[in-house]
Design a protein that fits this description.
Strand content: 15-25%
Largest sheet: 5 strands, mixed
Number of strands: 5
Structural class: alpha/beta
Helix content: 40-55%
Shape: globular
Length: 180
């Protein structure tokens, strides 16, 4: 088993504070023409200083790779002028999909902390149902994956009336399933 599982840090009150901050930031999209429940925040792992944050822009940019996590990594790397985000932690309002988790690994993030689960997101839109932790465990790169953190709070982003309306308009949507 890779060192990923052995390096588990544990969720802290600071993690919950960061997640609340991210939910507030992401919720701002719910009143725009392109609401999105997916937001990400990257902070310095040691100091907690915020480096970058972004939300999903798939519909706004007509780009299926414009997930919040990928956009945040792109912007953070540009800001640092580096392809490495070693020494940083990513918070995500939802468990990263396989693409986003692979991107986090390639960026060498120390840690990924998520809120809602892939299963939560799948109640409203299509998902690749591979847990982020499984992607991390199959990689040569180390990254601690922790979550869900404040799952219920993060899930409220998915159930906001404007978000539910947007889900119905997405061409790749699926009919919502009963939440288990």
């Amino acid at each position: 088993m890779p060192a990923t599982a052995a390096r588990r840090m544990g969720v802290t009150p600071l993690d919950e504070e960061r997640m609340r901050e991210l939910v507030r930031f992401t919720a701002r999209t719910l009143e725009t023409p392109f609401p999105a429940p997916f937001g990400a925040l990257i902070v310095n792992t040691k100091t907690g200083q915020r480096l970058m944050r972004a939300t999903n822009a798939v519909m706004r940019e007509n780009d299926p790779s414009s997930h919040g996590e990928v956009r945040t990594v792109r912007l953070a790397c540009k800001k640092l002028k580096s392809t490495s985000l070693a020494g940083y932690t990513m918070y995500s309002t939802c468990e990263p999909c396989a693409m986003c988790m692979a991107n986090a690994l390639w960026a060498r993030l120390d840690r990924v902390v998520y809120g809602a689960t892939i299963e939560d997101a799948n109640q409203h839109c299509l998902q690749i149902l591979i847990p982020a932790n499984e992607v991390a465990q199959r990689a040569d790169m180390n990254c601690v994956v922790e979550g869900p953190v404040l799952r219920e709070l993060c899930y409220t982003l998915f159930t906001h009336p404007n978000m539910l309306k947007a889900f119905r308009s997405w061409s790749s949507r699926k009919e919502p399933r009963a939440k288990s």
